[in-house]
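[audit] Reproducing an earlier prediction to check determinism. Same input, same settings, fresh worker. If the C-alpha cells differ from the archived copy the diff job will pick it up downstream; this log only records the rerun itself.
[audit] input (191 residues):
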Amino acid sequence: MDETLTRTFQANLADGDGRTLDGRLVPYNTVALVSDPPNPTEYHEMFLPGAFERQLAAAGRNKVLLNFEHEQGIAGTLGHAVELHDEPDGLHGSFKVRADSNGDYALELVKEGFLTGLSIEFRSRFRLVNGVKQRYLAHVHKVALCRFPAYENAGVYAVRSRTVQPLPAFDQKLVERLERLKFTVPETLKA
C-alpha cells in the first residue's frame, strides 16, 4: 500500500436532515478501465468484497473527509464521513455536508444532477488475475464529489431530506388563559 490512488464512481438520490449524503463509494466485483496520473497507461481493476474490512473494524480509522473534486486544503473541504459500512454490492458511506456557502452550493449541484459521482482517494494491495488488478485490501483516505465517475453504479444515491416534525399538542389551559388576556391565538394551536 505505497501510493495513494483515486477512483471515481457514479451516484443517485433519498431521506433525513438535508445535509447528509449517502452513497456507494466503491462497487465490488466491477471491472473498470483506469489509469493513474502521471502515468497514462490504462489497465483493468476491480475491488473485491471485504477489501475495506480492516478499516471498518478499526475504531477511529474512519476519519474520512469529503471534498470537491480532490481540492486540497480547508477551502475545498465540504464535510466528513459519519459512517462507512460494507454491503454485498460495495463500500457505502454517509457524509455530513458543512452548513456554509460551499456546502450549500455543493448540495444544490448534487440535487441538480451535476455532482453525482464519488471519487475515492485510497491505498491498496492487489493481485493480478487474468490481466485485472484485484484490490483485496484497501483504505479510503478522502472522498470527493465529482462530475465524471470511472465506475458505473456508484456515487451519491441519497440526499437525506429534512423531516418536518409536527408541533406538539399545545396546552389548552394556556390557550384559554391567553384568550382571557386578549391575546390572539392561531386556530392551529387550539384543540
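[audit] rerun output stored. Observation attached for the diff report: DSSP finds three helices and ten strands in the chain.
[audit] end
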